[in-house]
Amino acid sequence: MEEDILSFVSYLETDRHMARNTLVSYQRDLTQMCAYLKDQGVEEAAKVSRTQLNSYVLWLEKNGKATTTISRVMASMKAFFSYETKNKKIAENPSEGMKAPKIEKKAPTVLTSGEVERFLAVTQGKSVKMIRDRAMMELLYATGVRVSEIIGLQVTDLNFNVGFVTCRDGEKERAIPFGRVTREALLLYLESARAKLLKGHESSLLFVNCSGKSMSRQGFWKIIKYYGEKAGIQADITPQALRHSFAVHLIRNGADVRSVQAMLGHSDMSTTHAYVTYINHPTVREDYVNAHKG
């Protein structure tokens, strides 16, 4: 089954043009499923039954896996066995009809405008690292891009004449505008910090770590957590929280929901419309008003 999984992942990469992180997730989920089935004496996709897949899901639940994780694993299984069926490698799809557990949607963490101002304020500094961090955080909040997108940006993705950045997720591409403050932070970084971080090395990446190499997701998260604590923000500040804040603040200030959808790269309008629902929640409105008194 291992070879079938590799073939499936290769198909997702070459034919479906899926993002690298998505490919890694699929392969990890399916490899773990394969290991479980192997322990049960099943090593071929054609011999897998729905009962065995249900047993695997129950095993995940007993081992404390989150509902979101189990739902993702099931999506990976369904996609894999559907691929096997279409390619005539198995006669019947054992995952057909399996239902993923219901995921309880939590309200997104959204910072107030004041919290965002405090967060960005503490990134100001004269060191090479702080100049880079300021540029990253300004761009993150100004555009609402994902972590995987911002750490993968190329210098050529910036257009200072028009004032926008080009982001790519697999084969999809979108242009997102940014304002004067972000422009100034990016120019300062490019003119006075990036070359010092590279230490003579060459790279097309816009942002690099202190060793002049590509940044990791974990490294980026640590930076955000550091400045969040420094700003004294009690909310769980993450890259996603800044993305949520970007969307909510735009919509709250009158931005068209479809424009926000395009900037966020959402394929489904309902995903973006959830921010409108969030804003209209009575408790959220009251909290927002209280946070902005005076």
Q: Can you characterise this structure?
A:
With 294 residues, the chain is mainly α. The protein folds into 2 domains: 85 residues, DNA polymerase, domain 1; 179 residues, hpI Integrase, Chain A, CATH 1.10.443. 58% of the residues lie in helices and 5% in strands. The protein starts with a helix and ends with a helix. The C terminus is likely disordered.
SSE blueprint:
Blueprint (H helix, E strand, L loop, with lengths): L1 H13 L5 H20 L10 H13 L4 H20 L26 H9 L6 H16 L3 H4 L7 E2 L4 E6 L2 E6 L2 H13 L1 H5 L18 H14 L8 H14 L4 H8 L4 H12 L1 H10 L3
The succession of helices and strands, N to C, reads: HHHHHHHEEEHHHHHHH
Corresponding CATH superfamily of the largest domain: Intergrase catalytic core
Strand order, main sheet: write it out: 1-2-3
Q: What general outline do the C-alpha atoms trace?
A: elongated
Give the second-level CATH assignment, the architecture of the largest domain.
Answer: Orthogonal Bundle
Quick structural summary:
This protein has 14 helices and three strands.
